[in-house]
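=== Structure Prediction Worksheet ===
Name of assembly: unnamed complex
Input type: mixed (protein and possibly other molecules)
Chain count: two
Listed entries:
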Amino acid sequence: MLQIFRRLWAVNWAEQWQYRANLLMYLLFWLVSPIVYLAVWTTVARSQGNVNGLTANDFAAYYMILLVVDVLTSQITIHVLAPEIQNGTLANRLLLPAHPVLTQVLVNNIAFKALNLIALVPIWLVLYALFQPTLNLNLLHVLLAVPALVLAFGILFLLGSALTLVAFWTTRVWALWNFYSAVFMLFAGHFVPLALLPPALQTLAKILPFSYTLYFPIQLILGKLSAADVAFSFGMQVVWLGLAYLIFHVLWRAGVRQFSAVGA
Amino acid sequence: MNILRIVGAFIKLNVQIALAYRSEALVQILLNLMWLGWELTSLAIIFSNTTELGGWGPAELIALLGVWRLVNTLMSIIVWPNTEKFNQGLRDGSLDYTFLQPANSQFLVSVSRIELWRLPDFIIALALILVGLAHSGRITSALNIISFLALMVSGFAVLYSLWIVMISITFWFTKFDNNVTILAALLDAGRFPAQVYPFWLRLLITFVIPIAVATTVPLQALRGDLAWWEIVGFLALGAASVLISSRLWKAGVRRYSGASA
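=== Predicted Assembly ===
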């Protein structure tokens, strides 16, 4: 199994490396909205001193960490897998004795992530110099964040894959993805640190998986959570990882059974 | 008029294309309404935490959302679909046929694809502008309204010219098929008033990739925030950018040698 992953890594790394110019453009696209929201919230915080106790510096620190967490936990499965389902090339992969999504697509995601991370370093440093947030990081919190980030990526990868599998039944999978992204932006803490959401939406955010994949790791790194909060959030991550796997597994089994490639 | 006949032909062709994808239209409209809901929710959340954003009240931000959506709609109706066609044509050489036609090539490249199903977005955008203005409580003079409309047109002309510049650059750097990404990416920044952004970002979206010229600036004129010379300056910028971009386009076309050559 390790052998398989090692070979897949070599192939996927080389493949992603080919598209490094595209990657910069992708990063640019992805950077704009966090910076816009950072600017919006710091403006609000400056004009009235703070927003619900959050100062301009708190927002800057929050979004600077968000940039890193988002790269580490996000996934691009739909871009990789949906075309393969739709044009039938998935058929070749189904013949291989390894799960195509949990090997090939997974490694492709990780290679993309690794390259993204390298490109992010200089950009992050420039933004750090521009916004100059005070970050009080402590080693324990950063170390605790490692398992949180792994679990977060696991959840998002499985949810994203499950969503992509809907392509087995309909060509409208991109519309669904659009909708998913909107829900994610609101409830993961992308648009606003979740403490500023109206109470009803906050409750919903506590139930949905998204806050545990972005807001929780950010707050953990920033050292804003009590021990009880941390334990609860880790618990929720495990629960959602299990649920996401279940959804993915059921959809995969049903999807592959009814999949018929063009020409078959 | 020759130009009108060409536009007529393009519209007829694109109506036929659009009619072939009717259910797609419904999906697009639903998605658009979903994003509208998202955008209004996000404004509601911002204003549940504050009373003004960079000197702009909630109603004015709704109007700005409308203006931003209007720009976005124009981009989706003509600019993005034609970019796709242009890049495709440059890669496979079908652009040759465009240049062979006895009409202005910049014009042909700009309007040959029209995404008609996005037209309902116009109604939403206009409704947002009107509702926002009605609630903003500022009584605007006729002169302000005229400068608002003029600046909207010239702002879009600036963005369109920038687009022409970007695709013209592809004549020199054929591999540059990400030519419009930076424009598409920064468009998102137009949803909020430029005054909100840090100085470097404000410079970027006002002068380098001038999204703000088509979104914040017209509304500022409507609010009466702009001096007459600023309005004239922005209008001159619009006219100048159209001239410069068409020059560059012509230079690019002379460089073009077809995909096979």
